[in-house]
Amino acid sequence: MFARLYERAAPAMDRQGAAGHRRRLLAGLTGDVVEVGAGGGANFVHYPDGVGSVLALEPEPYLRERAARRASEARTPVRVVDAVAEQIPLADGSVDVVVASLVLCSVTDQAIALREMHRVLRPGGQLRFYEHVAAPTRARRALQRLVDATAWPLLAGGCHTGRDTVAAIRTAGFAVDAVAVVDVGPAHLSPAWPHVLGRASRA
Ligand SMILES: C[S@@+](CC[C@H](N)C(=O)[O-])C[C@H]1O[C@@H](n2cnc3c(N)ncnc32)[C@H](O)[C@@H]1O
After folding, report:
1. For 32-59, how does the pLDDT look when each residue is reduced to its tens digit (9 = 90+)?
2. What are the boundaries of each domain within the chain?
3. Which atom of ligand 1 is nearest to the CA of 42?
4. CATH code for the structural domain at 2-202
C-alpha cells in the first residue's frame, strides 16, 4: 500500500523541490552506476549523458514494475533487477558510482547495505546520496525515536526517521566530501526531516 501511495505522492514532492534535488544528486556523473532501492525510477530521467549504464535494484514488485517502465523510456541504459542493498549482485570494485536516494532510511540493515555499497565501488568511486536523517535538536530526535518505535515503519514501508545516516556512511569507510541540508516543501512538519544531499568517496 505504501508503494502505491508513494508513487501517487511523488509528482507533488517533485514540484516541492525533490526533482531539483534529484538533478543535483546525479549532476556530472560518468561511468557505470548502481542505484539501490530505485523505487518507481524517479531518478532515471535525471541521469546525465556521461553515465554509461545504470543497474537499478528494487525489491518491491509494484515499484519494480513501474521502474522497468520508466527504464524503457530513459535516455540512459537502465536495467532493473530484484535485489536488496544488503546483497548487491555485483563483483567487488565493479562500479564507478552508487546512488542512494530516500532508501537508507528503509533498508533492513543500514550498516550491511553501506558495506555492500563500499565493496562494489571501485577505489575512488563515489556514493551520491539524498536522504532524510536524524534531526538536529534533542526534541525532534525524541519524536523520531518515538515514531520509529511505533507506527511509522509499519505505515511507511520500513522507513525510520531517526537514522544518523551521514555518520553511518563514515563508519562504513567512506570519506564524506560534501553534505548540504535541503528543503522539500513542508517536510519540516514531518518527523522525516531534515533532508541532506551529499557525496562520499571510497578511498
Ligand atoms: C521511499 S522509497 C524511495 C524510492 C526511490 N529511491 C526514490 O528516490 O524515490 C524507498 C525504497 O527503498 C526500497 N527498499 C526498502 N528496503 C530495501 C532494501 N533492503 N534494499 C533495497 N531497497 C530497499 C523500497 O522498496 C523503496 O523502493
Report:
1. 999 999 999 999 999 999 999 999 999 9
2. 2-202
3. 9
4. 3.40.50.150
